[in-house]
Specification:
With about 120 residues, the protein is mainly α. It contains three helices and two strands. The chain has a two-stranded antiparallel sheet with strand order 1-2.
């Protein structure tokens, strides 16, 4: 029973430290730099409502807030990661397909029935 309690305590402490080290630090930085613009947008480049949204919640109008910049950076990282994962999966699939093709010979397509006039088969 003591081991179970120690394990739960360890899990709770590590989870809290991990959260504070990642999300907590981000939230602290966003709160500290909330009124500081990340950069300024030249006047007339975006409509007023877009300038308001880019400066949301507390940055000066005509600038990009740290919150919006953080969302934009996180989105770009997510897209690049997804593209990299898709590219990696595509490369791995081609490698596997190439190895199977050498072993098995030419594979038939889905719609090929071998010319025997066979229709779809029930499974």
């Amino acid at each position: 029973n003591s081991l179970k309690t120690q394990r739960q305590t360890f899990t709770r402490i590590t989870t809290t430290l991990r959260y504070l080290g990642t999300n907590g630090l981000r939230l602290l930085l966003q709160f500290y730099f909330a009124k500081t613009p990340m950069f300024w947008i030249p006047k007339g480049w975006v409509p007023n409502y877009a300038a308001f949204l880019l400066a949301f919640p507390r940055a000066p109008r005509g600038s990009v807030s740290v919150q919006v910049w953080g969302i934009a950076c996180a989105t770009v990282v997510q897209i690049v990661f997804a593209a990299g994962a898709a590219g990696w999966a595509l490369l791995r699939r081609e490698e596997v397909m190439g190895q199977q093709g050498r072993r098995e010979g030419m594979a038939m397509g889905v719609g090929d029935g071998g010319g025997k006039g066979e229709g779809k088969k029930e499974l």
